[in-house]
Specification:
The protein is of the alpha+beta class. The protein has 2 domains: about 25-140, Jelly Rolls (Sandwich), CATH 2.60.120; about 145-360, no CATH class. About 50% of the residues lie in helices and about 20% in strands. It has helices spanning about 1-15, 95-100, 145-170, 170-175, 180, 200-220, 235-265, 270-300, 310-335, 340-360, and strands at about 25-30, 35-40, 40-45, 50-55, 65-80, 80-95, 105-110, 120-125, 140. The strands form 2 sheets. Strands 1, 4, 5, 6, 7, 8 and 9 form a 7-stranded antiparallel beta sheet that branches. A hairpin with a 2-residue loop joins strand 5 and strand 6. Helix 6 (about 200-220) runs parallel beside helix 8 and helix 8 (about 270-300) packs antiparallel against helix 9.
Length: about 350
């Protein structure tokens, strides 16, 4: 089976050319829109030796595109008077992420550089979208960021990891991906995974869930990906994935700790394993589907970006659905009052969910 898998991956790597999706179309060169501030107002830039230039972007016209800024000397970038980049010389920012961060319908960008704005400063809006064979009069630039190879390697690694887990413990995989059992309000009380949260098989599932979540976060231009270095080659993507995975695993284990702690405080310790097992099962299904959608979109259109604001809202709604599902599962499983269970879910699920929304607002 592994030989067949390697053959398939090798054929796909040949059929899908490495350059596919890595040509970027320059949709707008913003240099002609530069402004300077003088005499109490803004005026057009005409080559003056100034330390700051300004320009505005309407994010609704550039959904899924990127703001590319480069120069031979480092510079700082301000978005609506807030510092977003400091002392960088090559920046690629997602317009959707900037719009979400600013929370306004118009992005006002300022670039500061000492001793003055250099003539080699590049300010462009580029698009990843490219339909092979389509004719275009737009300027095409070559930006090989290693994304193509990284996505193939990541997909292959995740698939092989899943195969290894399946060979090690087939029942584990079948239990975590059992849809009918998961969406049922009643589950048996004697499942061995509920009482062994930290055994080897469960730890493998936690690691796999962390890799799935972190991969989707690295590819989506929101939240954690804005705090990582801008990838310029294959190794940068791998490093970002590893760093994001470490952060996600830390959050997963922190959630497990809080579930155990509050289950003791609410005198329902026997449900801690049940709750965390189903939570990991849910995010495996949710982010597994999201990663598949991203990979399919990338190999069809050449872009890995989804409509980020909508994607984030959908994830929020699905996580809210998990809270509702968990409530009904616990009501049918625990011998406690509805108010008691609701307060417990507030402490372990609803409050963390509200914090998540605040972080990604």
């Amino acid at each position: 089976m592994l030989k067949a898998l390697f053959r398939i991956v090798f054929i796909l790597h040949l059929v899908i050319p490495p350059v596919f999706g890595q040509h970027h179309v320059v949709k707008s060169d913003l240099k002609k829109e530069w402004l300077i501030y003088s005499a109490g107002g803004f005026s057009a830039f005409n080559g003056e030796a100034v330390r700051a230039i300004y320009f505005a972007i309407d994010p609704s016209k550039f959904t899924g595109d990127y703001l590319v800024l480069t120069s031979k000397k480092p510079f700082a970038v301000f978005l609506n008077n807030k510092l977003v980049v400091d002392r960088e010389d090559d920046v690629r920012l997602p317009v959707d992420g900037l719009a979400q961060q600013a929370g306004t319908s118009l992005l006002f960008v300022a670039i500061y550089q000492e001793p003055h704005i250099r003539s080699d400063m590049v300010t462009q809006l580029v698009s990843e979208m490219k339909i092979p064979g389509a004719e275009t009069t737009e300027t095409v630039v070559w930006l090989d960021s290693g994304l193509h190879d990284f996505l193939i390697a990541a997909a292959l690694f995740l698939f092989l990891f899943l195969l290894i887990i399946f060979r090690y413990n087939p029942k584990l995989v079948s239990d975590y991906f059992a849809l009918t059992t998961f969406f049922s309000f009643r589950e048996s009380d004697d499942h061995p995974m509920f009482n062994r949260m930290w055994n080897t098989t469960n730890m493998l599932a936690y690691l796999y869930a962390g890799l799935l979540i972190s991969l989707s976060l690295v590819l989506m231009p929101v939240g954690i990906s804005q705090r990582l270095s801008q990838p310029h080659q294959f190794s940068d993507w791998v490093l970002n994935w590893l760093l994001a995975s470490a952060a996600v695993l830390f959050l997963l284990f922190s959630k497990a700790f809080f579930i155990l702690m509050f289950s003791v405080l609410f005198n329902i310790k026997e449900l801690a394993g049940f709750q965390f097992f189903n939570f990991v099962r849910y995010i495996l299904l949710l982010f597994g589907l999201l990663i598949v959608m991203m990979l399919v979109q990338f190999f069809i259109t050449g872009s890995h970006s989804v409509n980020t604001p909508i994607a984030v809202e959908v994830v929020h709604l699905l996580l809210l659905g998990w809270i509702v599902l968990l409530f009904f599962k616990l009501v049918n499983k625990a011998g406690h009052s509805v108010i008691h269970l609701f307060l417990y879910i507030c402490a372990t699920e609803i409050i963390p969910f509200l914090i998540l929304i605040k972080v990604y607002k």
